[in-house]
Every structure is written in structure tokens, then in C-alpha cells.
Write a structure and sequence with these properties.
It is a single chain. By secondary structure, the chain is mostly beta strands. It has two domains: about 425 residues, Porin; about 190 residues, Porin (Beta Barrel). The chain has four helices and 29 strands. The strands form four sheets. Strands 10-11-12-13-16-17-18-21-22-23-24-25-26-27-28-29 form a 16-stranded antiparallel barrel.
Length: about 700
Amino acid sequence: MPDARTLPGARTAPRRSGGPAGSPTNRAWRAALPLALLCLPPSALGGDGNAGGLGPGPAGDHAGPTIEPPAERRWTGFYLGGHLGYGWGRASSFASDLASPDFTSSSATLGGGVQGGYGLELPSRLVLGVEADVSFPNFLQNGLISSATGSQGTVTQSIDCLGTVRGRIGYGWDRSLAYATGGFAWSSVHFTDMPGAGDAVDDAVRFAPGWAAGAGLAMAIDGRWTVRLEYLFAHFGRTSVSFPTGVEAASSNAVHVLRVGLDWEFSRAGAGPSPEPAGAAASPSNGSEPRWSIHGQATLVGQGYPSFRSPYQGANSLSGEAQFAATVSATAFVGVRLWEGAELYFNPELMQGFGLSAVHGVASFPNGEAQKSDFPIPRFNVARIYLSQTFGFGGEKEPVPDGPNQIAGERDVSRLTVTVGKFSTTDFFLLNAYAGGPRTEFLSWNIYGSGSYDQTMDKLSWTWGALLELNQKDWAVRAGYFLLPVESNSNTFDTHVPQGQYMAEGEWRYALASLRGKVLVTAWLNRGNIGSYSASLAQPVTTPGYPDIALTRQQRTNYGFVAGVEQEIAEDLGVFARASWSPGLVEIMGWTDCDVSLSLGAAWRGAAWGRPRDTVGVAGVIEGLSSAARDYFAAGGLGILIGDGRLSYRPEALLEAYYSYSPWPWAWATLDYQLVVDPGYNAARGPVNVFSVRLHAGF
């Protein structure tokens, strides 16, 4: 996918923000289908990759689905895909310590998952098949089906995941299939008792068998992609548990699900070869702009370190004991052109795993794929859903290759774009070609991120907002307004305008001896329910949890600036630098505890040693706290990521180096090393040697 270095006036496509999140990724690989896409063969994925954000790969950018003219469709072959839907149901529950132990409850949630199967179309057009699927609840509802408080505590029941193995029978037309389905169903029911036998929560997981039945309609949207609308009803038998407290609980559940799915067909008879070479339909030169863009990614990061010097620990410390943690993400990025200049993008995502010490202890946290919410079981989220409208001013035009969150076509270099919806602010601001995101490049938050910029987000990286971008050949300006959490590190947003985050950015693109470069200057301002460091320290020392910053929250303002530069040194070698600053008088709302930072780095693609898709990256960041923040953390205060209970202050420094190996155009394996000096700005702790392995697949 092009960026400001490869197309005059071009904007990089949204990336997955790290850390939390989101965030955030290399602009050519933020796309997705669920976890199962790792199983696709290279011939199915096609296209070529960009191995490190250094411009297009040697064989070009990824090609999207090739649109075929209508042709007779035969529904024979294997398929694999993902789905999202809305589920609602009723549970019949029991808790022994209630005055009326038997009760019923209703619940509803969004969810998503993966499916796969095989179909056989008979000469009569009767279609027989078998399918298996598994679904996971939205991370906010977390599958909750009932909660009841009795004489000994609160018992909750939730569904961690559910699945089916079903037969299908239907009738196929040229491009559509109507079917009925039914078979075995199962669910994983999670019971909790709080408080448990001790101070902690007692929990238990039970397997619940059942049955499912439903019907659906599938329609082909091109040679190998089909979309479906499906209804399922599932009933799960009664399961029970006895807690150590003596409380007994049980439940049975009935669930209705209405869902939309997208399938990739491996070997449909009648699908036929593409009428043009891969990517031809995505070229604006063929006289017809495609309407759809479908891409996918899956990323696994395993990360750990040996034990290190840790004379004391606080609530938000990185544990001094050796540990290992892993995260997995999979995203489906679907785009559709609605009318001239208007594009709608929808990015459902599955996430699972844990960050080291539950994402605590290092301000520049070493895994950008680690969420601030831990997920032992995969959870579903709509990462992005937004509409962009572009108004062209005529004159010079530029091609737009198909890519993640970018539909192939052609656009005016001189243009105004309006974007509204849910996304990450760093999808459009603070873009960097060499340190764009943790899925293919640097993993450390403040190397791919921007230090003291307090990015507004939920615990997974995303927010709601709107922005304007005016683009010209050599420069661009953009400005936006975004919702701010109701309080620090929260999943709930404050919708009371004018509270929120305001951003403005200027971008200047230039060339030095034909080597391209870019300068970014960004300003931001937060207005919301924000706590004060000095007000926290002014509390009586007898205050429970002193200093408790939550008790000081009121309407306050925070602001800051970021300056960045990136420069080609050679065709396959680039360097970058970022500096950030904020006054550091109040708590951080979304990103990480940092008031000043400076990062430097370089990325070198491997054409020189015969591996043009491989990349070597080396970067470092040093960051610090304001005097007010130092006093707050020294007194035992807690931030979003740090808080050792006391503090021997010294700036935190981190060095990161990685090698990304690409055996195929759609796959990368990365070895990453990070040295963290004075983690959490604490000279009494560390250093820490963090080793990581990353596997990434994208198309």
C-alpha cells in the first residue's frame, strides 16, 4: 500500500494501534479475517507483501478480490470464514443461597467467531454439507447470562464460548444458496462466586451439551467469496457446580443468534479461474473501479524475560520473577464503496491473551499487541466502523492500490476528506513509515507510539470521532475531535461535547537528492474528568489508598505536542525520530504514564542480502516524568501502567532490535529483543531483558 513516500500526497491506510492497542500496524497489513486464515495456502492468499513499511514490496501491493461476471455457481468444496452476530436468550438458573433459589434471566450481546465446512451439490441442485463453528462474546458484555446476590455473596454465570457441528441441506442457484441446518451444540459455562472461600473469587467452568437448528441464505460476491445471513437457535442442557463455600449453582440456556458471515471457498466447482491476472481488477487503468475490498491479518506474539533485580514491588510493578505471556489477534477488514468518493469500512476482531504483569511496570510497554484487558478466552470486538467521504478538487490524480481499509481506484491529489466513526486516532495522525505498528515492525509502545501524546481510547485502543484532512502534493493538514473516556483507563466514553480530545497536525513532504522525507507537527488537547497530581498529594496521609487520584477528578485540561521526522537514506534504508512533551500536571486518560520522550530508529529492508521482504529494525527511546508526576509516584500513587509504591526516579530507557523474516509474501516470523533500563522510571529496579517471537500473516 502506498504512503507519503511512494505517492505524492498519499495518506497511509489506518493501522492497528498498539498497546492497548491498537494498537493500532504497518499500513499495508491492517486487514483481517479470523485466526483460521493462518491455515490458508499461499496460492489462496496471493499478492505480495510489504515487509517493513519501506514502501511497496518488490512484486507490488496486495490484490483484493477479483470481481467476476455472473457465472453458473456450483456449491461443492471446502470453505472457511468468519461471522459476527447478535445473540439473545434466556437462562433458567439456580443458586442455593437465595431466598428463592430458582430464577430466570434474559441477556443479549454482540459476538463473533469462525466457521468452516464442506458442501456437495448434486445434479438436481440439492446441496448437502457439514459445518462446524465457534463463537465468542463481545468483550464488554463478556458473555454474562445471570447474576444474583444471596446470603453468602454474588453468583454469576456467563458463556465463555459456544459452538456447533451441524448438517446442512439446501438448494443452490447460480449465485445463491438457501439452506436449513441442524445438529450438535455445546457451550462453555463459567460460574463465579464472590467472595469465595477466601478473599479471592471462586470460579468453575462446565461443558454444556445441546442442540442447534436454523436456516440461512448465502450469496456469491465474487469468484471465491460468499456472504451469508443466518439464524440459529441453540439449547444447552443443565450444568451445575458446588463451590468451596457450600453454595451450589446451576443453569440451562436457550440462545437465538442472527448473524452475518463471510466465507472463502477453496475449490468450488464452477468458480473458475479469474478472468484477469490477480490485481488487474484493482487497477484504475482497466476502466472499472471495484466496489469491494477484503483483507485479513492474524498475529501471535510470545514474550518473556528472565528474573531481574527487584528489591520491592507495588501494585503496578513489572514482576521481578521470570515470566512469559502471549497474545493473539485476528481481524477482518472489509470495505465497500457506497457512491462516488464515499467508502465504508468495517473491522471485526478477535483477541486473546495477556501482557506481561497484566500490562504494568514499563511506561514504554514491550508488546503493542497486549490489551489493557486480559482475555483467557478469545473475545470479539468491532475495532473500526467508519465512513470516509472524499471531495476532489481536480488536477493531478494518483492511483490507489487495493489494500487493507483502502479500495482500489483513482483520486485527486488535491482533495478534502471527511471521516466519521470508530477508529484509532493514530490511524490518521502521527503516521510513520518505519515505526507504524506492532504487527510487523517495532513492538514497544513509545517507539511505534508517540510518548507523551495521551491517545484517547478504550482499553483496546479505539474511540469515536470525526476528522477533516486537506491534502496537497507536498503537504497536508488535518484536524479532529474525538470522545474521551469518562475517567482514566475506562471503556465508557464521555459524550458531553465540548469535552473530549482535539487534535491538529501539519505534514510536509519533501525530497533530498530524490530521497523522500516527511516532517509532522502535532498538537493535542484533552478536556474531561481528570485527576490532579498535586491535589492527590494534598490529601491527608490517612486517606485510604493515599494518594488517591480518583478522589480529585473534576473538569480539567491537558495538552501536548509531538514533532516527528522520517527520511530515506537509500531505497531500502530509512531513519526516523520523534519528540513529545506535555506539562505532566494531571493523570493520563488513555495511553501511558509519560510526560516527555525522544525516540530514534532505523529500518533496513533486506534487498542487499537477497531477502527483499525481510527487515532489520533498531530503535531506542528515552522518556521521563514531570516533577509533579515524580512526587505523586514517589508517594505511592498509581498510574495506568506504573506504580511501584515508591520511586527512585530516573528516566526510563528502552532499546529494541528485531529481524523480520518473510518466507512467503503473506507471512512473517520475527525475533525481537528489548533492553529496558530503569523500568517504570525506577533506578532501584531492572534492567530487564525482554525476548519476543512474533508470527504474522496478512493478505
